[in-house]
Design brief:
Length: about 725
């Protein structure tokens, strides 16, 4: 077994559990008595502790055990979550996250720096203040009502008894029985242990991957049964685990003997060797077994259980229903597998090459004119398209998980700046490429913090304006024309255009006589070093950030725009492609070169009638004025245009325009390849692709083209290569 791979799984799962724990803690601020949420936090801490014990990570085990003990008191109603306790457990989660990151970087926990060790000690002391009172010298809890088993009518064993029959696939599933036993010693003491070798075959017949181990264990601990059972949570499905509390009754030992596969007398001897039963007690138990067998011949077992009032029908029904729910949940979990992101990237690259090869085969078939070959290539193209869609789906994730992380950001920042702010989330089910999600987190973080610091007004100002005392920041996501739109909205004071213009003139960004539209004025805040803050805070005011946000969004082939109303609030809108790898394109020809337009942005194609173009760059489309761009002029294409030209009507973010091209060449699956550094600043070009013939076709950046069309003086005229052949060469 590759323990490094298993450790990576532990690290990934621990991070997921810490994220769930943080979300649950933030939910408790609005519903502090929600039992399901409290149980979710307890399960997360318990699972991390149990998994860490398997790897011998004693520092994590000891620290998490203290947190788990406090959570157990909360579950039992002895403590209640308040603002102080919630803040403490958020710090606990952060500290565990640092320890996990330390492991992920390849370091041992023994190599922790002094600051982390001191943080571990201080948090442990703060948690210990919430721990239950110490038990009395007699070993009984101060609260006698919580004793697991009274000594009345019970046998003499004052320790827990564990019967462990590990399943044959325990080792194959990545579990080590000896690690589980070592983990028991973290919250108790193994008094005695008897290994059972009945299932061990001769050495020649042994399978090194099969587990043959079984144990009878006498275990002394003040922990409750749930904690002891939790130690075997990962092997319970395939193993036989039986646990009896101290001073259990004789009939419970009888049930244990009946349930285990060994013979009665041999098992009785083992219980005696463990110190669980004395010889006299074993004789009483076995005598009760004989009487029970005689009684079972005359009365059905169900009748016996009902008469003894051991189990009621509603309890049986509820237990069966719960068992079915757990089984279905586990089946769903087993349907999920973890895949390395690098392997998915490799799959997408191979699918891209398959698309290019398929296009080449299709073109060859068309040139040959063979009907059967054409039919085969058409079927191949359909299959390749389905493979492409399935492969891209593997990398699609919901944006909601990213949005939920900002609950913590809003909570911490609002307390830091002294404002009462909540976060609203909508559209969390919207999916986009995992690569895009990873790279959009930092820009979103800056926008959310900026909205809280600059956007939301102080309490006195909000009350003077008749607004609610509590400010609101809203994150929203939705699909629009083949793109995903992310919105960061606040109900704050909005942007003051006159103040922005004054700052811009002060910095020399615009001249005194220059007139800008409201949208152009708002876009000035994306200029490097621009800030309207009067004071520099820990969050903002230094003029660093918004230009970086815009640059990061542009690197994702997206754009950012801003709407604001003075006194009402601001909305920052980010448009991003669904994927960065493969798209459906529409191939057009301009002179000898081919260009690809993202198909989702194409509305329609029409023939350009002679004389339909006006001098001011507009045509009439069914009575509507439509601006257009002549692609021949854009790319300085020499030669005369064909007698028949076409207009491709494109639309993006509410803007429409026509692209005048020479030829329409139909739909085309496009594998997006990035431009090199030499062409990185070319506006109007978003990348390139390889056609089936091996020729290069440029992919048009429609958003930047529409921006240049709306503001022709804002940018120099098109800086794209004269022809794709320049790149191909």
């Amino acid at each position: 077994m590759d323990m490094d791979e298993v450790l990576k799984i532990f690290i990934a799962e621990s991070r997921e559990l810490l994220e769930l724990m943080e979300e649950a803690l933030l939910l408790l601020e609005s519903a502090p008595e929600d039992a399901d949420t409290i149980n979710a936090i307890f399960r997360a801490a318990h699972t991390i502790k149990g998994s860490a014990g398997l790897f011998g990570l004693d520092l994590i085990v000891d620290f998490t055990h203290i947190a788990e003990s406090v959570l157990d008191r909360i579950r039992n109603g002895e403590l209640h979550f308040d603002e102080t306790l919630t803040a403490l457990f958020l710090q606990v989660g952060d500290h565990l996250g640092k320890l996990i990151t330390h492991l992920d970087e390849g370091h041992d926990l023994e190599q922790l720096d002094a600051e982390s060790l001191e943080q571990n000690r201080l948090l442990g002391e703060r948690l210990s203040a919430y721990m239950a009172p110490p038990r009395n010298p007699g070993g009984l809890p101060a609260n006698h009502e919580r004793i697991e088993r009274s000594t009345q009518d019970g046998l003499s064993a004052d320790h827990w008894h564990l019967s462990l029959r590990f399943g044959p696939d325990t080792l194959r599933n990545g579990m080590d029985p000896l690690s589980l036993l070592r983990y028991l010693n973290t919250f108790g003491r193994i008094v005695n242990i008897v290994p059972l070798l009945d299932r061990v075959p001769p050495a020649a017949e042994m399978d090194p991957e099969t587990c043959y181990l079984s144990f009878e264990v006498a275990f002394a601990s003040d922990a409750d049964k749930a904690t002891i059972e939790g130690a075997f949570e990962f092997v319970r499905e395939d193993s036989l685990i039986r646990i009896l509390p101290p001073h259990s009754k004789s009939n419970e030992y009888l049930e244990l003997i009946r349930a285990l596969p060994e013979e009665d007398m041999r098992l009785g001897e083992i219980l005696m060797r463990c110190g669980t039963l004395t010889a006299a007690e074993l004789q009483d138990v076995l005598h009760a077994q004989v009487q029970g067998q005689q009684e079972a011949e005359t009365r059905p077992i169900g009748q016996v259980l009902m008469e003894e009032s051991l189990v009621q029908p509603p309890v049986i029904a509820a237990a069966l229903q719960k068992q079915q729910q757990v089984k279905e949940s586990r089946n769903n979990e087993n349907n999920l597998i973890r895949v390395d992101a690098g392997k998915l990237d490799q799959l997408i690259n191979l699918v891209g090459e398959l698309i290019i090869a398929g296009a080449g085969a299709r073109m060859t078939a068309q040139q040959c004119g063979n009907a059967e070959m054409l039919e085969s290539t058409e079927q191949l193209s359909r299959l390749v398209e389905e493979v492409r869609d399935s492969a891209l789906t593997l990398r699609m994730v919901q944006i909601g998980a990213t949005f939920n992380r900002f609950q913590r950001v809003v909570r911490d920042v609002s307390r830091e700046i002294g404002k009462d702010i909540t976060l609203s989330i909508s559209g969390g089910e919207t999916e986009l490429d995992k690569t895009v999600v990873e790279r959009i987190t930092d820009p979103l973080t800056h926008l959310v913090r900026n909205a809280m610091d600059h956007g939301i007004e102080p309490l006195a100002v909000r009350q003077a304006r008749g607004k609610p005392a509590q400010g609101n920041v809203r994150l929203n996501a939705y699909h629009d024309a083949g793109s995903i739109v992310l919105e960061v909205t606040d109900d704050g004071g909005g942007l003051d255009p006159q103040r922005i213009l004054a700052k811009a003139r002060e910095r020399g960004l615009i001249s005194d006589g220059q007139v800008l539209t409201e949208k152009e004025t708002f876009n000035l805040i994306f200029e490097p070093g621009f800030s309207t803050a009067d004071q520099v805070s820990n969050l903002s005011g230094r003029g660093v950030g918004m230009d970086v946000v815009k640059r990061n969004i542009s690197a994702l082939r997206g754009n950012i725009e801003l709407d604001s109303r003075l006194g009402e609030g601001t909305c920052v809108r980010i448009r991003l492609p669904l994927t960065l790898a493969i798209i459906d394109g529409f191939l057009v020809g301009v002179g000898p070169a081919g260009y690809v337009i993202p198909l989702d942005l194409v509305e329609e194609c029409i023939e350009l009638e002679p004389g339909a173009c006006h001098d001011r760059g507009h045509i009439s489309l069914r009575g509507e004025v439509l601006p257009f761009i002549r692609m021949r002029e854009l790319f300085d294409e020499e030669g005369q245009p064909p007698r028949r030209e076409n207009v491709v009507v494109v639309s993006y973010a509410g803007q429409r325009a026509g692209l005048v091209v020479d030829h329409l060449m139909g739909e085309f699956q496009t594998v997006i390849k990035p431009l090199g550094k030499l062409f990185g600043t070319c506006r109007g070009i978003g990348g390139f692709t390889i056609l089936g013939s091996g020729a290069v076709a440029l992919i048009l950046d429609i958003p930047s083209l529409l921006t240049d069309l709306a503001h022709p003086t804002a940018h120099a005229a098109p800086a794209a290569p004269a022809a794709p052949a320049a790149i191909e060469a």
